[in-house]
């Protein structure tokens, strides 16, 4: 039996995802050591390998088959646009993709003015404004602390993740429009889905049974 390889988005989602795997009997003790510099972890008994990768790289590993399965946010899936199957919503890391800005920007949005939109997610922003709203905008790619952009005059609005709303509030910004809800998803390589169907289906069934029972 060959190893099934699972790529986990490191950062916010990893801890909860590992906890879920543990609850369905898939453990990887070595991975819990926060000091380790090791990148890949093996469970010999279950013939599974885990690795942690930068969230935006997870869909790439899965599309190319370097990982059979990935756990990654819906935001990253939409942004990266890779060929893969999205098979299950883990309902962790729940948040929303939103258009945000100062109150005054609401009118500019409403009247379809040519505004600048800063975002870590340029493809999601482009899809929302061009395809859903049929509105021409200028998109400016940033890599983090996106809330700064409207404050210092780089853009009129931002497209960013909102969870509690605390970052927006502390910076005098608000949600102007909601783009879509987000959560962590299980994604699967297209070939692995056929070649390893039985093992992958069992894993997803175990995840579903555990999470549905937990909800009750
Ligand atoms: N408040 C939040 N802010 C950002 N992402 C969140 C939040 N809540 C849940 N998430 C989920 O967690 C993922 C981001 O995790 P994290 O913030 O650790 O990575 P990142 O900072 O986007 O990654 P990178 O280091 O590549 O910039 C998102 O893809 C999203 O699905
Ligand atoms: O609604 P809240 O609960 O305040 O969470 C949302 C904030 O958290 C994320 O930023 P992150 O901490 O990942 O930093 P970054 O913007 O530098 O990526 C996101 O980009 C928002 O800024």
TrEMBL record:
<dbReference type="InterPro" id="IPR001348">
    <property type="entry name" value="ATP_PRibTrfase_HisG"/>
</dbReference>
<keyword id="KW-0067">ATP-binding</keyword>
<protein>
    <recommendedName>
        <fullName>ATP phosphoribosyltransferase</fullName>
        <ecNumber>2.4.2.17</ecNumber>
    </recommendedName>
</protein>
<dbReference type="InterPro" id="IPR024893">
    <property type="entry name" value="ATP_PRibTrfase_HisG_short"/>
</dbReference>
<comment type="subunit">
    <text>Heteromultimer composed of HisG and HisZ subunits.</text>
</comment>
<keyword id="KW-0328">Glycosyltransferase</keyword>
<dbReference type="InterPro" id="IPR013820">
    <property type="entry name" value="ATP_PRibTrfase_cat"/>
</dbReference>
<comment type="function">
    <text>Catalyzes the condensation of ATP and 5-phosphoribose 1-diphosphate to form N'-(5'-phosphoribosyl)-ATP (PR-ATP). Has a crucial role in the pathway because the rate of histidine biosynthesis seems to be controlled primarily by regulation of HisG enzymatic activity.</text>
</comment>
<dbReference type="GO" id="GO:0003879">
    <property type="term" value="F:ATP phosphoribosyltransferase activity"/>
</dbReference>
<keyword id="KW-0963">Cytoplasm</keyword>
<keyword id="KW-0808">Transferase</keyword>
<keyword id="KW-0547">Nucleotide-binding</keyword>
<dbReference type="InterPro" id="IPR018198">
    <property type="entry name" value="ATP_PRibTrfase_CS"/>
</dbReference>
<dbReference type="Pfam" id="PF01634">
    <property type="entry name" value="HisG"/>
</dbReference>
<comment type="similarity">
    <text>Belongs to the ATP phosphoribosyltransferase family. Short subfamily.</text>
</comment>
<keyword id="KW-0028">Amino-acid biosynthesis</keyword>
<comment type="pathway">
    <text>Amino-acid biosynthesis; L-histidine biosynthesis; L-histidine from 5-phospho-alpha-D-ribose 1-diphosphate: step 1/9.</text>
</comment>
<feature type="domain" description="ATP phosphoribosyltransferase catalytic">
    <location>
        <begin position="54"/>
        <end position="208"/>
    </location>
</feature>
<keyword id="KW-0368">Histidine biosynthesis</keyword>
